[in-house]
Amino acid sequence: MTDITAVDAAPAPITAEQFAAETSAILGSVGQVIDGKPDAVRSALVCLLAEGHLLIEDVPGVGKTMLARALAASVDATVRRIQFTPDLLPGDVTGVSVYNPVDREFEFKRGAVFAHIVIADEINRSSPKTQSALLEAMEERQVTVDGASHPLPEPFLVVATQNPLEMEGTYALPEAQRDRFMMRISMGYPDAAAEALMLRQRDVVNPLAAVTAVTDASAVTSLIAWARSVHVAPAIEEYTVALAQATRADPNLHLGASPRATLQLIRAAKVWAALDGRDFVIPDDVTALLIPVLAHRLLPARGAHRAGAQPVESALRQIVERVRVPVAARS
Length: 331
Fold this sequence. Notes:
- The mean pLDDT is 88.
- α11 packs across α12.
- This protein has helices spanning 16-31, 38-49, 64-74, 90-94, 128-131, 135-140, 175-180, 192-201, 217-228, 234-249, 259-275, 283-294, 311-322; strands at 54-57, 75-76, 79-83, 95-100, 105-110, 117-121, 142-145, 148-151, 157-162, 183-185, 215-216, 253-255, 299-300.
- A hairpin with a 2-residue loop joins β7 (142-145) and β8 (148-151).
- The strands form 5 sheets. Strands 3-6-9-1-10 form a 5-stranded parallel sheet.
- The chain folds into 2 domains: 20-189 and 214-223, P-loop containing nucleotide triphosphate hydrolases (Rossmann fold, 3-Layer(aba) Sandwich), CATH 3.40.50.300; 229-322, Helicase, Ruva Protein, domain 3.
- The chain is α/β, with parallel strands linked by helices and 331 residues long.
- It is built from 13 helices and 13 strands.
């Protein structure tokens, strides 16, 4: 298991062929556990390689935690799972200072957030105070306790699951917390064939037991560096900014996309392009990620719910139709 106390070395350079082989291995490893959900598996990998965080929202029993655990099992890195409950305290997440009577000084005891991959299970079942304990960790990759800052390991990924707000015992994530998540996805129910296969295969066998690590934290760091090098033409940058600004001026939206959202949209698009075997971003990469990256950050205008069941998603689709797509996408 990778030691998170080790000094992070510069990532080793890799080739396009190595990137394709490593990412295919991860997708295949997670895919053998999550049947019939390739988009969800790909989104999880995008968040890992784009240095973002993933929020999985859906009803209980559709595989939210299974996806997080399968990704964690596929990477030889430190993994911690936090079960969020109403009595969970912020110190349980970040850590606390404990007095050592022998040395007569306080020692910092690391919390569960000190890991490469943190599974925040049912994050909206804890109080807003405990939820906010993740804010600094997710954005700045560090934890500050009693005035001292403690860096988190690299890579660092939070995969959080949550139940719909209308369910019992849930607390709404504040806007600042939602904005820390690069993407929000839903698993959805499996189709009939996938569900029947699940009944046959999982009655006596746990699919997670067969998952072995296909890469490690050091290799993931090299994959991240490769994705960073993907080219984004000025025209694509301007197109992405135009989409974000359109959300801020749309009458159907009360809260538009933040500059952080724009930055994370570009980062995710780079990984999306790299997974498709390209070293440059095209407009389709941006639009494919628009709803999973932006929708959870936006708020519909008052009365917008009467216009449809998904007013934010509908507004984003209309924005894509309005904003001019650049012709010369690469320069």
